[in-house]
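User: Predict the complex with molybdenum atom.
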Amino acid sequence: MPTRTTLVDSDYVLTIAGAVANPLALDFAAFEAMPNEAKVTDVSRFRAGRSGDAVLLDAVLARAEPAPDANYATLHADRDDFHVSVPLADLRSEGLIVYRDASGPLSLDQGGPIRFLIRNPAACNTGELDECANVKYLSCIELTTRKGRDTRPTTEADHAGLHAKES
Ligand SMILES: Nc1nc2c(c(=O)[nH]1)N[C@H]1C(S)=C(S)[C@@H](COP(=O)(O)O)O[C@H]1N2
Ligand SMILES: [Mo]
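Assistant: Here is the predicted structure with molybdenum atom placed in the model:
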């Protein structure tokens, strides 16, 4: 369960930080203002049960200008202290940032206001880009040279525990 049940202004802002020439702080209006070719509408096309519209991770990173030695992306969810760190090269073409649904910012029960989504994830705990990397309540994408913090569950028991807590 999320630690807070209410949302504060900073929950609506995604920061892009670390090994980038141009750090960013993106709010709802900034996502909306991205060009159409940077957008993916209706992510239920990729993932049954998910809803909302997204922007391409790659389009956001292009604005942030990753440093040549940025090898890893760490996806931070401050809200519940959940973190995932994956190789940037693998992630670039797969990553979507879901930020809205039909009525406005993505709802909390969908993992909003901002949620990471991998187009074709591996099953939980079977690879770097697995379902567990679909980080909810995304607050920051941090680029680094080496692998960063990763709190994904690694055992079946931890998984069962985390999933029980989610539902
Ligand atoms: N912030 C946050 N994101 C998270 C998690 C979490 O505990 N906290 N669990 C992950 C795991 S282990 C999985 S399998 C998926 C589950 O997504 P779903 O509940 O939408 O099916 O969310 C991932 N994203
Ligand atoms: Mo998971």
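Helices lie at 28-32, 57-64, 88-92, 156-166.
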